[in-house]
Amino acid sequence: MDDHLIESFSRYGLEVLYSIQKELADKLVTPTIAFSAIKKWVLPHCDQLAKDLIEQLSQPGWLDLYEMYLKIDYSTTSDETREMAEIIELIVTFSKLPPRKVSPRQSLDTTYYLITCEDRGKNINQIRYTENGLDVFKFCKYCWRHPVPGRYICAHHSAHSSDYLASYRIKQLFDCYTFEKSSLETFEFLEADYHFSYFLPTKHIYNWLLNRRPNVADQLRSTALPLNDKNIVNSLLKMLQPTHEYHWSALEASRAINNWILRYPELIWPMLLRAETWFELRNQIHHNWGGNKTRGKQTQTNYVLPPVNLAEKWIT
Q1: DSSP 16-72
Q2: Looking at the 3D structure of the chain, how many domains does it have?
């Protein structure tokens, strides 16, 4: 563990950390053993909300403990409790060598959205799956589209296409941008005591897009699709996930997801976030990189995200 991580803790935080380190030393740490240490040393220093989250768990795995850390870190307003959440993260990460890498069940941007919805009494998890079990929050790892069933990429990013190669090279940057935007909006929502246009509204949706998802709004306006509240979600789906991009094997799944989002429009929020980030990143790359750059006598070819023509005639 790096020294700068240790130095960031307060005195009581260090006491808790060293107590746990002493207890777990020379042990093969399982999730059960780690959870027992968390309840013994971390729980007493947490606020009531964090205590409730910890006590709700039963026989957790590493993924459950990591997601508990995320929920506590998100929901608490107490510095002491947030420090305890960081200790939980350290236990999960450094209880083995090399350090354990744990990813939540979905991308972090989706995780934050789900936590925010749950915090406001919106149980999105109850409606995130279509009638035939498709997860609306499962995205292509390179963009905002939904993946072909049984794969991790969408039809647009099929292997060895120019879009695939370009997106592959900037995937880490796309992930960082998406998480950063999601985190910023989430904490802005909390800092404003929930008085912030975070969720997709039911009225004046295009105005919300102009304010919260301006790049998506610009793309949508260029398609000449309807922008009124009654039709705008359908217009967004035609633009962002047109079913004609899919082969027959994936056509049924993409249509099912689009129809499900039309039924529950609030489910489109993570897709809009990812699309906004992608368009913003593409614009920055085009502006900063340009095309070929010359260094001395050598010519360096930079891989640039190809432009997306969303102003064509859409096929439903």
Answers
A1: HHHHHHHHHTTS---HHHHHHHIIIIIGGGS-HHHHHHHHH-SS--HHHHHHHHHHH
A2: 2
Same domain, 18 and 160: no
Among 72, 94, 116, where does a domain finish? 94
Q: Which amino acid is at 112?
A: Y
Displacement of CA 283 from its chain's centroid (Å): 21
Q: Specify the DSSP class assigned to residue 281.
A: H
Q: Give the pLDDT confidence score for residue 313 in this predicted structure.
A: 40
Same-domain status, 61 and 120: no
- pTM of the predicted model over 0.70: no
CB-CB contact of 278 with 173 (8 Å): no
Task: Please report the sign of the dihedral spanned by the C-alpha atoms of residue 40, residue 46, residue 48, residue 50.
Answer: negative
Does residue 162 contact residue 299 with C-beta atoms inside 8 Å? no
Q: Number of H helices and number of E strands within the chain?
A: 14, 2
The predicted pLDDT at position 301 comes to 36
- pLDDT for res 302: 41
CA dist., res. 260 & res. 241, Å (int): 13
Based on the domain organization, do 150 and 279 belong to the same domain? yes
| Encoded tokens for 34 | 């780690």
For position 150, what pLDDT does the model report?
Answer: 76
CA angle 36, 42, 45 (to 5 degrees): 145
Q: DSSP assignment of 129-164, as one string?
A: B-TT--BTT---TTSSSPPPTTSSS-GGG-TTSHHH
Residue 254 lies in a domain: yes
Mean pLDDT by 10 residues, the chain (316 residues): 64 91 90 95 92 89 86 80 91 88 68 83 88 89 85 74 68 80 84 81 95 95 94 95 71 90 95 93 66 40 44 38
Report the candidate in 221, 214, 226, 232 with the shortest Cα–Cα distance to residue 276: 214
| Residue 141 buriedness (CB in 10 A; 0-12 / 13-18 / 19+) | middle
Which of 52, 67, 57, 53 shows the shortest CA–CA distance to 32? 57
